[in-house]
Design goal:
Radius of gyration: 29 Å
Number of strands: 15
Strand order of the largest sheet: 1-2-4-3
Number of helices: 20
Structural class: alpha/beta
Largest sheet: 4 strands, antiparallel
């Protein structure tokens, strides 16, 4: 990486000046019209050495080894400015063109990462709230792999909770399951349409009908205990639902190594509870099994009389492991899932891409696992919480009737809107092409925001072919491919013939740097911005230079190689963002 090469010059000079081993660092210049990089480390070094920072900066610059690649200068009060020569830019550009990774280094140490994302609930229709997890999870998976990690992805379906009991009970009361209980008639075929009708109906009933809700909880427990015919019906519901879930995730470009669900962790629940009890961590509270997870300072006990339940000021509530009726909860299955994963895969870290509003849940689960030793020392458990997708009113996006918009409707809307854009460009209807462009628009619109922040769902803005959008990046890549196909000739050495070429290489520097930033931040917005900046720099170059009609042979060959370099860098970035490059637009 170019920054490391520059820092090596600075640190060797600092040692030559008698300042000892230092770790001077540089950053991209805040004044790009003045210099390319800047070093601000002399201020901290001056405090350590008890010297004047400007004098330190001057000494370092004066003692830098002579070279024809970097120009160093001092600016008050104590900044070191660095400008790259054309030779340096050309060397870097030609190296990146030859390197299959476009000049991006892998991490020296690889980690095994288990990524938990997707998280669709079986028997429920996916909706807009299910978008951010698969979009972000798929891109983080690709980023981690690109940086050298071994990554395992698990969709972790919600298939063991109350919604299963609610759905079955509603189907039963609607007379759809008589065959299983009374042997009446033929065995029914459970369809997606039946589930889409039954669950919403049951969900509304449980809010106003306590008897129905209590019966649904009993039904859920029978499923969890694998009683018949409840468990056989459950498996049929799961099978039908998962087919649809796989279809939608495939259309979004999200792929998984494991299609496990909470039910797969069911066999580990008793073992997990046994481990927790063996550590004397749990106790009964009103008949339910709980574990205190509050840390010092979080649980401030309030005075209590004999026989009263202990109450706390601003407490971190205990983790509920088992209900009074013996049924397990989401926390229980998540704890059992961590046990299952550690027994099977032994990851260095487990990351969950789940709604930020689930932060308390994951804090409790992680603490139980650490206290009980279910998660070994040194293993990271991370919740990457995402914000909500809002409408123009700043509230969670809804239909005009106030319902949550279904994922299937969003995908159809993406195809419809993208088709309209393509038609205006003279391209006939092509569902696959429209899906590629529509999904790219949705992904970039999502990923260009910080993962933890809410954002406004504005499909017209996302689908624009100009500006910071997914289709603009796709269009840039398509245009480069078209020019290279027409050129049909080998390129030569890349030369810095104008400021436009220099700006492209500098944009590539920032793109390369963004991978590491996104890795640390666990958010893809930096990569989105850097990819757009490279595409914009290329567009400026392309508008100012005639690549195919350039008469100077060396220049034309340099241009062709430059296009191949931009193509490579864009392809690497778009692959991490899980955005496909269409053949035409």
């Amino acid at each position: 990486m170019i920054k490391e090469k520059i820092e090596k010059f600075l640190n060797q000079s600092a040692k030559r000046c008698g300042f000892g081993e230092q770790k001077l660092s540089i950053s991209f210049s805040s004044l790009p019209q003045v210099c390319d990089f800047q070093c601000n480390s002399c201020f901290a070094l001056a405090k350590t050495l008890g010297k004047n920072p400007f004098e330190i900066a001057t000494m370092i610059v004066e003692n830098i080894e002579k070279n024809d690649r970097f120009v160093f200068s001092v600016a008050k009060p104590a900044f070191i400015n660095i400008i790259l020569t054309d030779k340096a830019l050309e060397e870097e550009a030609n190296f990146y063109l030859a390197d299959e990774r476009g000049g991006v280094d892998k991490h020296q140490k690889s980690e095994k990462v288990l990524l938990d994302y997707g998280g669709a609930n079986v028997a429920k229709a996916l909706h807009i709230g299910h978008l951010r997890s698969p979009i972000t999870g798929e891109s983080l998976k690709r980023l981690y792999k690109f940086m050298g990690d071994e990554v395992i992805s698990d969709v972790h379906l919600g298939d063991w909770g109350l919604q299963m009991g609610l759905t079955e009970l509603q189907l039963f009361e609607d007379g759809k399951l008589d065959f299983y209980f009374d042997g009446i008639g033929e065995e029914p075929k459970i369809t997606l349409e039946m589930l889409n009708e039954a669950y919403p109906k049951a969900s509304s009933r449980k809010k106003v009908d306590e008897e129905f809700n209590a019966k649904a909880e009993e039904w859920t427990l029978k499923i969890q205990n694998k009683e018949e015919p409840y468990f056989s019906i459950y498996k049929k519901i799961r099978e039908v639902s998962v087919v649809q879930i796989k279809k939608h995730y495939s259309e979004l470009g999200a792929n998984f190594d494991y299609w496990y669900g909470e039910s797969d962790a069911a066999d580990y629940i008793d073992k997990a509870i046994e481990i927790i009890e063996g550590q004397n961590l749990c106790y009964l509270s009103n008949g339910a099994l709980v574990v205190d997870v509050a840390e010092e300072g979080e649980n401030i006990p309030l005075p209590k009389k004999e026989g009263e339940i202990q109450r706390y000021k601003n407490p971190m509530p205990p983790a509920l492991i088992k209900k009074q009726n013996g049924a397990v909860l989401y926390a229980t299955t998540d704890i059992a899932t961590i046990l299952m994963r550690n027994l099977a895969d032994k990851p260095d870290r487990i990351e969950y891409i789940v709604d930020g509003r689930q932060d308390l849940h994951f804090t409790q689960v992680f603490r139980v696992c650490k206290k009980a030793g279910i998660s070994p020392k040194g293993q990271e458990l991370v919740h990457i919480g995402y914000g909500t997708i809002n409408g123009s009113d700043g509230k969670p996006f809804k239909t005009r009737s106030g319902d949550t918009i279904k994922l299937e409707d969003i995908i159809n809307l993406l195809i419809e809107k993208a088709s309209e854009k393509l038609k205006s460009n003279g391209v006939e209807f092509d569902r696959e092409l429209a899906l590629q462009i529509g999904v790219a628009a949705m992904k970039f619109g999502d990923l260009s925001n910080n993962i933890s922040k809410d954002y406004v769902f504005d499909l017209d803005k996302f689908l624009a072919f100009e500006g910071k959008t997914g289709p603009y990046l796709q269009y840039t890549a398509v245009r480069i491919n078209s020019v290279l196909n027409k050129a049909d000739e080998e390129g030569g050495k890349i030369k810095m013939c104008s400021e436009d070429e220099r700006n492209i290489i500098k944009a590539i520097f920032k793109l390369q740097s963004s991978y590491e930033t996104c890795y640390k931040d666990k958010s893809l917005n930096g990569l989105c911005l850097a990819t757009y900046d490279l595409a914009a720099a290329f567009s400026t170059f392309y508008n100012n230079h005639r690549v195919l009609s350039e008469q100077d042979q060396d220049k034309r060959k340099s241009y062709i190689s430059l296009l191949n370099l931009v193509k490579k860098e864009l392809a690497l970035a778009l692959n991490v963002l899980a955005i496909d490059v269409p053949k035409k637009m």
